[in-house]
Write a structure and sequence with these properties.
This protein is an alpha+beta fold. The protein has 1 helix and 3 strands. The longest helix is centred in the middle third of the chain and has 21 residues. It is elongated and about 45 Å long. The mean pLDDT is about 90.
Length: about 80
């Protein structure tokens, strides 16, 4: 059985106006049995990240996300 994980790249402006990007994954890691289920949850998590960023006055320029097959997790 395949398992998928969420990968997010969040780009933002730092305090001097330079853009930086940070790769992120959920902690603890969540494993999904289908890519569709993973992408649906990823969309919700990205919306939560946007809300949190606005609340903390973080200027997000772009957010990219995808669900990748985790080949390091043993097949169960």
């Amino acid at each position: 059985m395949k398992s998928f994980i969420i990968i997010v790249m969040m780009c933002h402006l730092d305090f001097v106006g330079q853009e930086g990007c940070i790769p992120m994954t959920p902690n603890p890691q969540i494993y999904y049995q289908s890519k569709e289920e993973c992408l649906k949850d990823a969309e919700n998590k990205v919306e939560d990240m946007k809300t949190t960023a606005v609340y903390n006055n973080i200027q997000i320029t772009q957010i990219y996300f995808n669900c990748l097959e985790d080949k390091s997790k043993p097949v169960t």
